[in-house]
Write a structure and sequence with these properties.
2 domains; Isopropylmalate Dehydrogenase; 12 helices; alpha/beta; 10-stranded mixed β-sheet; 14 strands; globular
Length: about 350
């Protein structure tokens, strides 16, 4: 297969983990006989410094022409002043909107070798295997914003069509798993959530009667993610709730550095990134966890390139490396001496299949 992948290293530890993601893609190309064109482009704070804007026109054009987009992380104190007119996050919202990637998939699996690295008891997190489906291009993040000296407002808007399409994505995914979908809202307070609940109920009854639907208020969901996480299968929710809950769910695994994400639309092109931030406090030290990026590469191979065997090979290599004790500094609570970013990635790459 030939594929063109746009690569956005971004800021902070982004370039460090993306370098390992690119090494993984090259190893997969070599081991399975593919040809990947990897085009690195400025984005986020680095693009603000170089071009004056977080999403330069050339970067956007390349992303729109690519088969997939791989992103590191963006942002940092340098660009976060309250009075800043241009911020890295503006580029990310604009990129998501331009790519029309409205469904953010965030799988959360607790690796058996790391069950004791979570701050929760191993008995609580052992066997956790859930997927969040977060609506990504609507809601309060994209609504009208107003700021006055002593007053500010952010408008949260959802249409039934936006809710229908994200529920369908989540329900189709649930059909491939345990056929249980939890829809999370705040329907006891918010009109947008009441529309969300009514729409989800209708879509599931009409189109997915074989998938069990459970409604849950967002505050209850936050509690039950820590109390009984094994009970969840697929969870679907709106933009801001999903942003918050997925970071909470990530801690079930012991570290934000372990988890990948895929942002998808109607076609195969997607935006793939680890869920962690740019971590400017450790940037340049070579100690960032690369596993979230490597697993994001696996999602890219699966969803945008339809290379299931290759995706599974990356995921299995990560699992084997962790079982062998290849742990970065954020995972040393699980035992073993910490490895650097490149060393941890190398432990994965050496376990990938090779030609000949």
């Amino acid at each position: 297969m030939r594929a063109h992948i746009a690569v956005l290293p971004g800021d902070g530890i982004g370039p460090e983990v993306i370098a390992q993601g690119l090494a993984c893609l090259r190893a997969i190309a070599e081991g399975f006989g593919h040809s990947f064109t990897l085009e690195e482009l400025p984005f986020g704070g680095a693009a603000i410094d170089a071009c004056g804007e977080p999403l330069p026109a050339a970067t956007l054009a390349a992303c729109l022409a690519a088969d997939a987009v791989l992103l590191g992380a963006i942002g940092g104190p340098k660009w976060s002043a309250p009075e800043a007119r241009v911020r890295p996050e503006q580029g990310l919202l604009a990129l998501r909107a331009a790519l029309e990637v409205y469904a953010n998939l965030r799988p959360v699996q607790v690796q058996p070798a790391l069950a004791d690295s979570s701050t929760l008891k191993p008995a609580v997190v052992a066997g956790v295997d859930l997927v969040f489906v977060r609506e990504l291009t609507g809601g309060i993040y994209f609504g009208e914003k107003r700021r006055e000296p002593r007053r500010a407002s952010d408008l949260c808007v959802y249409t039934s069509a936006e809710i229908e399409r994200i529920v369908r994505v989540a329900a189709r995914l649930a059909r491939t798993r345990r056929r249980h979908l939890t829809s999370i809202d705040k329907a006891n307070v918010l009109e947008t959530s009441r529309l969300w609940r009514a729409t989800a109920t209708r879509v599931m009854a009409e189109e997915f009667p074989d998938v069990a639907l459970e409604h849950m208020l967002v505050d209850a969901a936050a509690m039950h993610l820590l109390l009984r996480p094994r009970d969840f299968d697929v969870l679907v929710t709106e933009n801001m709730f999903g942003d918050i809950l997925t970071d909470e769910a990530a801690m079930l695994t012991g570290s934000l550095g372990l988890l990948p994400s895929a942002s998808l639309g109607e076609g195969r092109r997607g935006l793939y990134e680890p869920i962690h931030g740019s971590a400017p406090d450790i940037a340049g030290r070579g100690i960032a966890n690369p596993y979230g990026t490597l697993l994001s590469v696996a999602l890219l191979l699966r969803h945008s390139l339809a290379l299931e065997a290759e995706a599974a090979a990356v995921e299995e290599a990560v699992r084997e490396a962790l079982e062998a004790g290849a742990r970065t500094a954020d995972l040393t609570g699980a035992g073993g001496a910490p490895l650097g970013t490149a060393e941890a990635a190398a432990a994965v790459l050496k376990r990938l299949p090779r030609r000949g």
